[in-house]
Every structure is written in structure tokens, then in C-alpha cells.
Specification:
By secondary structure, the protein is α+β, with helices and mostly antiparallel strands. The protein is about 25% helix and about 40% strand. Bound molecules: 2'-deoxyguanosine-5'-triphosphate (DGT).
């Protein structure tokens, strides 16, 4: 019998929800993995879902909004031992409904420059420069429209 284990990959979708130069983060609740850490709202893709369907469902469940899922802005991977996550970040500029912390302990809007001061998942800290340049690029694009 072989003792080697194959890696497991978990696909995760998250939303870069932006408003007036700020981005939305939520604090992960106690009793879950990474308690107290600030994340971009989202979660795992269930079997049979497209990434966009998964994110639409997660944002409905976690925030109580119906979001217009924008373009895929960034894809990254991160390794936790023999498990890896594939993180897909989508831009969210439009949604219906009022944001509520259904799942998170707290929600807050932060300026991109404040992100580095928060306790983020390791998977996000490593790619923070890419996330920041994305948010900046989005702002620049909107100003030039
Ligand atoms: P469940 O059904 O209890 O497994 O929960 P889900 O489907 O809401 O997924 P969740 O949020 O527990 O799992 C997402 C995984 O991805 C978790 O290990 C944390 C990791 N992760 C890293 N960065 C982020 C991020 O910015 N947002 C989210 N939502 N997850 C992130």
C-alpha cells in the first residue's frame, strides 16, 4: 500500500466589493477556521456550480445581497500542508440590497492602504501587493471613464 497522499485542492471564490475607494472586508467568526481574521466575503465552490454562481450564492448567504458578479480580477494559489486553495477574486461594483453581517462578526469598509494593518489570511497577505494594484487600477479606470 502506498503511503504517499495526493494533494487536495479546494476552489474558493471571493468578491472585491468596492465603494467610494474602499473595499469591504468581513471578520471570520469564532468556531470556524481562521477565527477573527479579516477576509474578502466568499467561500468554497460547491460541486456543480460555476465560480460566478458560487460567489453569487455566498454573497447572498453571507451578506444578504444580490450581487452582479464582475470580471475575474485575480487568481492565486496557496498551500496549507497537503491541501491547497485556489482563490479566485471577482470584482463587484453593483449589488442590490443592504449589506448585513449575517455570517461575519463584523463588516467594514477599508481604504486599500489600511488592508496591510489587518490580520488577513496568509493566502491573502502573500498576494497583497497584487490585490492593492488591482484596486488602484480599478480606481484609475473609473476616473478615466
Ligand atoms: P464551509 O461551507 O463552512 O466550508 O464554508 P465556506 O464555503 O463559506 O468557505 P470558507 O469561507 O470557510 O472557506 C474558504 C477558505 O478559503 C478558508 O480556508 C479560508 C480561505 N480564504 C483565504 N482567503 C480568503 C478570503 O479572502 N475570503 C474567503 N472567503 N476565504 C479565504
Amino acid at each position: 500500500m502506498s503511503t504517499t497522499r495526493r494533494a487536495t485542492w479546494i476552489p474558493v471564490v471571493t468578491g472585491l466589493i468596492q465603494r467610494e475607494g474602499k473595499v469591504l472586508v468581513g471578520q471570520r467568526p469564532e468556531g470556524q477556521t481562521l477565527p477573527g481574521v479579516w477576509e474578502f466575503p466568499g467561500g468554497k465552490i460547491e460541486l456543480g456550480e460555476s465560480p460566478e454562481e458560487a460567489l453569487e450564492r455566498e454573497l447572498r448567504e453571507e451578506l444578504g445581497i444580490v450581487a452582479d458578479i464582475g470580471p475575474l480580477a485575480l487568481a492565486a494559489t496557496h498551500r496549507y500542508g497537503l491541501t491547497g486553495i485556489v482563490l479566485l477574486f471577482f470584482r463587484i461594483d453593483f449589488w442590490k440590497g443592504e449589506l448585513k453581517p449575517v455570517h461575519h462578526t463584523e463588516l467594514k469598509w477599508v481604504r486599500p492602504s489600511e488592508l496591510a494593518k489587518l490580520k488577513l489570511p496568509e493566502a491573502n497577505t502573500i498576494i497583497l501587493p497584487r490585490i492593492l494594484s488591482l484596486i488602484d487600477a480599478d480606481r484609475a479606470n473609473r476616473v478615466s471613464l
